[in-house]
Hints:
The chain is an alpha+beta fold. The protein contains four helices and seven strands. A seven-stranded antiparallel β-sheet has the order 1-2-7-3-4-5-6. α1 (8-44) packs antiparallel against α2. It starts with 7 loop residues before the first helix and ends in a 7-residue tail after the last strand.
Amino acid sequence: MTRSGPAPWLRAHRARVHRARRARRTRVCALVVLxxxxxxxxxxxxxxxxxxxxxxxxxxxxxxxxxMYLSRTWAVVTVRGPSMEPAYRDGDRVLVRRSxxxxxxxxxxxxxxxxxxxxxxxxxxxxxxxxxxxxxAWLVKRVAAVAGDPVPPWAVPAPAGAxxxxxPGGSLVLLGDNTAVSVDSRTLGxxxxxxxxxxxxxxxxxxxxP
Length: 210
């Protein structure tokens, strides 16, 4: 009897984490090289060693701060499944603006599980980098209602969808564009907004895979 390999979702998860770690190593190497170049330029310009070391330190510190800013402000997530077709298709890689307050009609990336599974990790910190983002499982959905909006009675199960009820604070109603196949608030109920990674800004060029 032959043994099958890892499930597709597990292979995709491992590949996602591997890409994030490889990107982090690349950034670190680039910063080291940049610092070395800054030091060499200073020495060639007849600066003393203390000045050269200072230039290298400032270059490395500034570059590190810039990379940290980018990773805490932006993220790249791969769409899985057909639930957001035709806007986003399986394999699309989307650019996400992190820590953005979502509005009705926007597309967001939200963590699977909604924080209600036993043993699920706390919400992702805003200071978490690309590797921490890649280690989590995400959904891409469109915001149908935010806190304070009337709850669409057809969008969430009772009692949250009772007539006249409103979306409570800290919650969102999320739906997939392809309603025929999407698993969203219609079956899962309200999503906590602290599980939202951010708002989708655009699809990255040439990201769609066959």
